[in-house]
Design brief:
The protein is an alpha/beta fold. The protein has helices spanning 12-22, 42-52, 57-62, 73-87, 115-123, and strands spanning 2-5, 28-31, 65-68, 92-98, 107-114. It has one domain (2-123). It has a five-stranded mixed sheet with strand order 2-1-3-4-5. It is globular and about 35 Å long.
Length: 126
């Protein structure tokens, strides 16, 4: 699987946890710097962010991708809409949580959120 990381760099420990949770090896990690101009519109910046990953249209649709979304909610939700358009489905995303009592602050992998499965289940409740 390929981890597309729009957040802080992942440690070896975090990558091992992702492999454990997913049952798949992490083949590579694509680190994408997520710095936005809050005075400018977000949608064009999100499109540029997705473009910065460097994947082709076919790769977005066929590679086994796992997304670590950016922390800022407005960027994350807009990015998920952009990725759904490119991929044809909602990607699975990684949820990080703070390690309690850690100084300096550290984050651990909490879970993998299968967003497309969430969507599919929600459709049955319409």
């Amino acid at each position: 699987m390929i981890v597309v990381n729009f957040s802080h760099p992942l440690t070896d420990e975090q990558l091992a946890r992702l492999e454990s949770l997913s049952g798949e090896p992490v083949e590579r990690t694509l680190e994408v710097s997520t710095q936005f101009d809050h005075a400018a519109e977000f949608i064009p910046q999100v499109v540029a962010l997705a473009n910065a990953v460097g994947l082709t249209s076919a790769e977005w649709q066929t590679l086994p991708l796992l997304i670590v979304p950016p922390a800022l909610n407005f960027i994350a939700v807009t990015l998920l809409a952009e990725l759904h358009g490119r991929m044809g489905y909602f990607p699975s995303c990684v949820r990080l949580r703070p390690v309690e009592g850690a100084a300096p602050p550290r984050y651990e992998i909490a879970e993998i959120l299968p967003l497309n499965a969430v969507r599919d289940r929600a459709r049955r409740r319409r």
